[in-house]
Design a protein that fits this description.
This protein is α/β, with parallel strands linked by helices and 409 residues long. It folds into two domains: 132 residues, Aspartate Aminotransferase, domain 1 (Alpha-Beta Complex), CATH 3.90.1150.10; 255 residues, Type I PLP-dependent aspartate aminotransferase-like (Major domain) (Aspartate Aminotransferase, domain 2). It contains 14 helices and 17 strands. β13 and β14 form a beta hairpin. The structure holds ligand C6P. The site of ligand C6P has 16 residues, from α4.
């Protein structure tokens, strides 16, 4: 046990992948920000669904279809409770964070922004919170601006405030930067956005995985995240949106399940949330996400955050002892990612070499090219933590980085 009651060794036993050998060495998985490993409980829920509870949803009046529909809609209610949304119909199933952010751009921005209106993002964005806004900017003649972070990765509200004008209609920010780990003050930014008459879109891909989130408390207008980073399946994500906004937004995709009536002349839309869920949805993935929510709830998001915080503090100290290593992103209160460069080796070489010791980190631009430019590096290596990581994982990382130094010097 580490902190009071957090039995990380017990938790690790839930994850089959964590007992693998990789290149003859025990796997040290430090790449959960890219995608997290899955616990047995999620794998079993998915298998059970395929084996004994599977049919299409919302369509059949037979036993299996009713059961599958109950499981699918039940998972939506689990997500609603998990993020404390006011209504379950504020929870829209998407393919992931990227899909959710594109939905806001293609529906909300396309319908309600006019030429000359402004969207503000930050230099820390993942590409999925940049490119959808650029696409709609180019189409509609909008203006896209970015608020910067400082050298340490600290985000100052003043940098955002300075960009707000009476044309600001959307502010889109990450909850947590996938490169710097910086946690943004969502609640304060929501207040700023609303004061300016804008809506706040939060890319929560790296937020919801590390801390409790409460939509009613944060008061953001949209919050997007992916199931696969939250120990659930791929192919499923969530767009939370406030009811009054979702109600007035047009659908982006047409097809089955999103309609109320169809004639050859015209169609009318289904109520929320189905208006945004055209076609056969990712049924099993949604149920798997529900199981993942049950799983993290049973441990507790606050406990997960505290455990990861302990490992993060330890990792920050240990990495500081590696000669020639520069940690990028040291904002106070940051969450579970450690991006770094080494004088002696390119991040791709670092990742390839430490992989020989079974240590998995990500190397590259982390889908955040503007941030690489901001820090004037072509790429970074990144170790990212999940609820199952330990101080021993960090020791293995540091030992393998010492090998990198030996090889290159
Ligand atoms: N970041 C990483 O290694 P999707 O691919 O749609 O599930 O999530 C996209 C996304 C959006 N925002 C943030 C802050 C993210 O971190 C990610 C995914 C992974 O950092 C894969 S690129």
């Amino acid at each position: 046990m580490s902190e009071a009651g957090y039995d990380v060794e017990r938790i690790r036993q839930d994850f089959p992948a964590l007992s693998m050998l990789v290149r003859g060495k025990p796997l040290v998985f430090l790449d959960s920000a890219a995608s997290a490993q899955k616990p047995r409980q999620v794998i079993d829920a998915v298998t059970k669904m395929y084996e004994a509870e599977y049919a299409n949803v919302h369509r059949g009046l037979h036993y299996l279809s009713e059961l599958a529909t109950a499981r699918y809609e039940g998972a939506r209610e689990k997500v609603q409770t998990f993020i404390n949304a006011r209504h379950s119909h504020e929870i829209i199933y998407t393919r992931g964070t990227t899909d959710a952010l594109n939905l806001v751009a293609q529906s909300y921005a396309r319908a309600f922004l006019e030429e000359g209106d402004e969207i503000i993002i930050t230099t820390m964005e993942h590409h999925s919170n940049i490119v959808p806004w650029q696409m709609i900017r180019d189409e509609k003649g909008l203006v896209l601006k970015a608020a910067d972070v400082d050298e340490e990765g600290v985000f100052h509200l003043s940098s955002l405030e300075a960009l707000i004008t009476d044309r600001t209609k959307i502010i889109a920010i990450p909850h947590v930067s996938n490169v710097l780990g910086t946690v943004l003050p969502v609640k304060e930014i929501a207040a700023l956005a609303h004061k300016a008459g804008a809506v706040l879109v939060v890319d929560g891909a790296q937020g919801v995985t590390h801390m409790p989130v409460d939509m009613q408390d944060l008061d953001c207008d949209f919050y997007a995240f992916s199931g696969h980073k939250l120990y659930g399946p791929t192919g499923i994500g969530i767009l939370y949106g406030k009811e009054e906004l979702l109600e007035k937004m047009p659908p982006v995709q047409g097809g089955g399940d999103m309609i109320n009536t169809v004639t050859l002349e015209k169609s009318t839309w289904a109520d929320l949330p189905h208006k945004f869920e055209a076609g056969t949805p990712p049924i099993v993935q949604a149920v798997g996400l529900g199981a993942a929510v049950d799983y993290v709830n049973a441990i507790g998001m606050a406990a997960i955050g505290a455990h990861e915080g302990d490992v993060l503090t330890y990792a920050t100290q240990r990495l500081a002892s590696v000669e020639g290593l520069r940690l990028i992103g040291t904002a106070p209160g940051k969450a579970s990612v450690l991006s770094f460069v080494m004088e002696c080796a390119h991040p791709h070489d670092i990742s390839t070499i430490i992989d020989q010791a079974g240590v998995a980190v990500r190397a590259g631009h982390h889908c955040a090219q503007p941030l690489m430019e901001r820090y004037d590096v072509p790429a970074m290596a990144r170790a990212s933590l999940g609820l199952y990581n330990t101080r021993q994982d960090i020791d293995a990382l540091v030992d393998s980085l010492e090998k990198v130094r030996e090889i290159f010097s």
